[in-house]
Amino acid sequence: MTAGNESVPELLPMVFAAPNEALARARALLDSAPPPEHASVAHQVIGIWQRDWGDLRLALEHLRRARDLAARAESPEREADVLATLGVALVHAGRTRQGLAAFEQGVRRGSGHTRARVLYRRAYVWWVLGHHREALEDVRRAIPVLRQTGDVIWTARALTLRATVHLALGAVERAEADFTAAEALWDTTGQEHDKADAVESRGLAAFRAGDIPAALRLLDEAEERYAKLGTPTFMLNIRRCEVLMAAGLAPEALAEADAAIAVLDGIGGQSTRKAELLLAAARAARLAGDPGTAIARAAVAVRLFSGQRRGWWEAHARLVLIEARFASGRGYGRLVADAARVAERLEGSGAPAAPEAWLLAGRIALHLDWTEDAERYLRVAARSRRSGPPLARITGWAAQALRARAAGSGRGVLEACRRGLAVLDDHRMTLGASELRARATAQGAELAALAQAVSLAGGGPRRLLEWSERWRATVLTAPPTRPPADPVLQSGLTAFREIAARAEEARRDGRPVPALEREQRRLEREVRSRTLHIRGDAPGGGYRFDVAGMLERLGDGRLVALAVLDGRVQVLLCGGGRVRRFAGGQVERAEREAEHVQATLRRLAHPRAEGRLPLVEAMGRRLEEVLLGPAARHLGSGPVVVVPPARLHSVPWALLPSLRERVVSVSPSASSWLRARETEPPTGGRHVLVRGPGLATGGAEVPEVADRYGRATVLEDADARVPRVLEELDGAALAHIAAHGDFRADSPLFSSLRMVDGPLIVHDFERLARSPYRIILSSCDTARLASVGADELLGLVTALLPLGTAGVVASSAPVNDEAVVPLMLALHKGLGDGLSLAEALRDARAAVPSDATHQATGWAFTAFGAA
């Protein structure tokens, strides 16, 4: 490169069009011994690159050198421009006073167009510092000048910045207008980094407007653009953490924030970004139920923000610190005043987080019985229930519910809870991915618990049942949004399946698999990411639970709905035209017993474990005592439907003595049981039998079952491939799948059944137009589910129920393959005699040999639904 006048000015805009190329050209220019003004440009380019994507210490060295060279060249405009760049770097290094002084000098040295650019960059710094009104004033002065001079790039930057400031103040519509205007300008330029930043900003706007799928999609697109440029993405990390937390994915947000902090520390990057990442990590840790980590991260963030003179940010960090301390039981009295002070600071600066702070102050005051203070704080927090994004309105309704409870108004509590959960219903249905719908319910957990507590205290068993149903298994109230015809998603699923199959083959052969496992995890992330982008298309608030209709449908049967309030099981026994309540035991004890039972069933799946049979039977008696209590004596003689809370999904209900000889089915909610009862079987009665690879018995029951049904479609060997299996399963009356199951606790929607060409996962089932009316999964762990959100379950079974499946038989534990065969044959005999799945499973358990392995296998299987 030459040092000619025509080429040097191109370097500065190139930093945000092709950053690495600009860096290389600037270094080459310096090697050519350029005159001071040109050298100043080169050092400024290197300083910008180091400031935004490298070592901040080196950035300051180059920018100071650029300033000195501009002064030597006697170019006030050049000096003003460098001073603005230096001011940004100083602020990012935590040297706020020096940075603002550099801007003052730059404003004095520059004129016209240059001064407008300086004002824009000072507006950016005001935004970083949380001085939003000052930021708006500077950018208001800069934009007209930039427009008049035809400076498209800097006008677009200024519009993008103004939109971002509007978002920080909660003015979403103004922000969207500025983002739209900026994007139109960016389309006329080659500024690829700025374009990526514009996409990122639109993602932030979508999030502030409550559109989480669009926010995730846009942030992922921005990340792809940054990756092509080879630049780090710390601001993107911060924004994605916000969206992940709102989507109920706090552990992922914490991991992302901590990883970004490690990268930032490794390159000696911006102190301001580190403080913001620490704040994001603190919020994520608090939401993930880790107050200790939240306190540690938030305390460091407070210290950094304070040193950087960033009061707006410091107030947000203090809010998280107080929330975490309250969650850990520390210093309640002092925390009330601290929370109120933070709330006043946030409200004074127009921060959207102010209602959250007022709610926290009121909640702590209520905990201390400071009713007057609580009423004052909650009244202010409740104002947000009328307007704003969904999560802010839910905060307001939570405050209103707490106010009503403090005033002794049960009716007021229920009304506030009803209104707040209705807001969350509407928000939840904008989410297309069943995982996001399930996790979003956590936002309504407090409202549901308040309503249940009021119902328990004075509303009667029927009302308690209604409110327990109101927020139980809500993901199943509407079918999931079908994945679009997305070729990228389809190719990702195919590639994932191929890699997973190769990894499994390598494990069987004893070959190393780390590289394959890394590629499998990468493909999983891509598939999941594309799935989370899906926007919901079903209206909210459609189905409502009908207690009278349920009691009529039960006939001579009983439905046992278990609710958990204040750590204790409440048994709601429905049948005979009424709902009765019985007190159970402590839910923690039930969870421990269920875990012990599962461990023992796993051992009984292997030979020579007969001595443990009396042990597991004793566990069943203890489980019945804590889960059913006196209700066990009032079950009548008919069939029983059990509706457990999500945290008790792993209980093998057939093991409980009072249920062992009964027809028992399990449902995630009474509502879903009613819908299963009303689901009509498909015409034609098509039967599909699938036999996957690698079973110890080779799926020995499949040929005999096929003979029983005569015209059944049998898929095995090369036919047992995922595309063909899905094609045949769609709309079948009965499906029996004998295949190895794999439950993924870390990612439940990647739980799978092994086919010849790789795993058949939950995401695949969600592509069916209608899943089989009845489905039998005769393999290990197919009924295991992950508890998420308020009271939701994710896994194979819950994926099938909203898609048209009325009944499922599956196992919640590893089972003995050989013992499964006679159980399945007996089960299909009962189905051939016209029995339901639950009836046939009851008879099948009685028909198999009485040794420990066969008995444990029978207990491990559960009938779900009502078919």
From TrEMBL:
SUPFAM superfamilies: TPR-like. Gene3D superfamilies: Tetratricopeptide repeat domain. It comes from the Bacteria. InterPro entries: CHAT_dom, TPR-like_helical_dom_sf, TPR_rpt. Residues 618-865 form the CHAT domain. This is CHAT domain-containing protein.
